[in-house]
């Protein structure tokens, strides 16, 4: 016996009754009452598990629940003993291999039920002359119900033959019986079949712009397309941001807001000033409203790594700080929820969508509204790049931190412009330049995060009353200050890489020569 389990595909149009009859002719068969259980597949909104080849399933039969995990596509499906429900987040699991493997795939994203399959099972047992069970056979019908009100779809019939320890000869006999039927071996592809039946796509959720702009498209048409896509991203993340469990929804929501405001203010003289002013103010307000939520999310996420070298006793003393961060986060979250669930908020977004979906040319035309988008894109990206070089070259070891913050904002504007218009340029070249910029942004972003987090800790120290927690917090401030200095010291090297002559030549070739030529 080379394997202790065999799985076969059974023809959908054939009934199991005939198969059971054939089995009874060759074996002593005991048939148990038919049973029903459910396989529920969990994944993140962006299908991180499926993309990685992992799987997380909950099996329920009305009496018990069992959780199964497959770490990667070649790994076996293993039951997770002691767990009877699926965690929302990896951090909710007890420390161990399962938590580590799950977190490595989904990070901070929330798990939700994505696909459920109803399995109608006929359990059979092959008995020997002593009425002992020597082989188990399950005859399964797998049904998918995409909508509760719609009739189910049969995804397929499967046969599973399982060996019983000590009865290899009986298993071999049953195996020979099924091989004579010339059945195809089956793979566990029910999730794939259900996805196809549901017409769902594992790439339906995306925060990428996914725009294909025509180089000769008028700038106003291109800008509306960019802003409309950003509005879609913002709206698809709103419900998750309101719920607040998966912090990536708020992050993606905020990015779409920042990009919207940047598009309005950077791509000048395309929309009327009145329109730009009205919606810039609105999206700026949303950015300020959500700043404290994101700041607390990031700090709570990094707190354990910040505290890991403080010693166990001081880590335990930080509980008041954790509560302080969570309380501030909850307060800021509630302010956000109150705003985005208001009638005023919904009306502004409705008006904004109506404006963007209006295909009538802007009258009177603005200076750049009819300009070909490729020309405007070149001008904007090149000029912003020059500002970034000027600001970066002016920074020395003695320069105030504010100069790095200004460069960080300029680099963010440059990154957004390159992403808005990247479909106008050769994909490989624009991606390489964006990656070069990202290396500098990572350095500037870390520098800013340390600054923000030290300010949060100072606020805690001023408001706190727990002396032990304040001492631990003060020690953490000292550690973060050292980290910020180390990040500052590595800035020059990062900026040299970004501003290298090779990169400058690439920027010129892509955004100046291509335009002039």
Describe this structure in words.
- Helix 13 (401-420) packs antiparallel against helix 14 and helix 14 packs antiparallel against helix 16 (491-498).
- Helix content is 57%, strand content 14%.
- The protein starts with a strand and ends with a helix.
- The protein has 17 helices and 9 strands.
- Strands 1, 2, 3, 4, 5, 6, 7, 8 and 9 form a 9-stranded antiparallel beta sheet that branches.
- With 517 residues, it is α+β, with helices and mostly antiparallel strands.
- The longest helix has 37 residues, at 427-463.
- The protein folds into 2 domains: 5-198, Beta Barrel (Hypothetical Protein Pfu-838710-001), CATH 2.40.320.10; 219-516, Alpha solenoid (CHAD domain).
Brief summary:
With 517 residues, this protein is α+β, with helices and mostly antiparallel strands. Helix content is 57%, strand content 14%. The chain has helices at 16-26, 48-52, 97-106, 168-180, 190-198, 219-243, 247-266, 273-307, 312-317, 319-340, 343-357, 373-393, 401-420, 427-463, 467-489, 491-498, 501-516, and strands spanning 5-10, 28-31, 35-43, 55-60, 65-70, 78-79, 112-127, 133-144, 153-163.
